Amino acid sequence: MNPVLEALFGNRTAACVLLFLQCYGEGHAQRIAKTFDFGLNMTQRQLKRLEEHGVLVSRRLGNMRLFSFNERNPTVRNLRKLLEVELAALPEDDQQQYFRQRQRPRQSNKPLVMHG
What we know:
Layout: H1 3-9, H2 12-24, E1 27-28, H3 29-36, H4 40-52, E2 56-61, E3 64-69, H5 74-89, H6 92-98
Antiparallel strand pairs: 1-3, 2-3
């Protein structure tokens, strides 16, 4: 990960949470924590802090809370532009490991296509 982003956002967890949400649009604490091998409590703390300061919004979906960017906040729109540039600049290994994960199960009747 980019150490400059970690410095800007205060720590690695916050930087990764924001990059994750930029990439996938929304996410819940357990998925984010598992993706980066962070502690769940640490991830929840960052999500809560970012929500309290108006960067994120959340909604309940079943028994989980989904977080996404607060698009009503003009600073967030600028932040997302920065995050988009930083995502594109990440090393290919980081992009593969963290930001190209399947988010939904494949449809049961959809054939598995192997690219190679």
